[in-house]
Design a protein that fits this description.
With about 290 residues, this protein is of the alpha/beta class. It has eight helices and 13 strands. The chain is globular, with a radius of gyration of 21 Å.
Length: about 290
Amino acid sequence: MPEGKIVKALSGFYYVQSGDARYQCRGRGVFRKNKINPLVGDEVLFEESNPGEGYILDVKPRKNELVRPPIANIDQAVIVVSAAEPDFSALLLDRFLVLVESKGIDPVIFITKMDTIKEGKLEGIQQYEEDYKKIGYPVQMLSTKQTDDFDQAKDFFKDKISVIAGQSGVGKSSILNAFNPLLSLETNVISESLGRGKHTTRHVELIEINGGLVADTPGFSSLDFNDLELEDLPACFPEMRERMEHCKFRGCMHNKEPKCAVKEAVGKEEIPTYRYEHYLQFFEEIQNRKPRY
């Protein structure tokens, strides 16, 4: 029975890539009955009914999945933040990082528009770059005029399934268009009045970039922590995760507990204060979340 990967979903059809061939498939009725919804990125078993057409018979177990965009088996999320227009926000970046970490996906950070930074702001951005690299995150700075930056950034996509995430107007579509000019994804000029861009995508598709696959729909349209439990939050901060075992109390939440290795590290400036402040902010947000019934 042939195997393949769903690379596109549109109007009830699933386009399965198997070797060099692509098959337009439908899901078997048993999926609806068992409430299994095949997703782009799924590894599937299928049968060919006519040349180039077929039916999906089984979906292999997933290592992870996202709801928005609906996609499975993601290796990495490229989080795009801009140095300016819109201004760099470590709080927003940390929110994306926590969401990505909570799904078991490896984050990569792209900081765009480095050539548009106003005087005096460059040092601050470079400090953030240093901080995030120290935590262990790959960081790539991108200047619109530097093709070398894009050549280096391209390497991150090789042999990986990636999603791209970031607020509107940071240049997500422009990055993909630079890597693969055939895409000509819809890019809209930032609306001056709103300070944000617009994006309209009608289906999910994995597109080839430098020997890897990238979802053409931005990830994480919702930035709330509805699926994240409070006790799982500390593990979404790598620098806290690696110090947990040194806290006096097992299950330490690094908040009000004494002899906490994380708070000690913040005091010694081994963990940036802003990261810890963001952690406390997210902690409070999850703690005050209204219960779901």
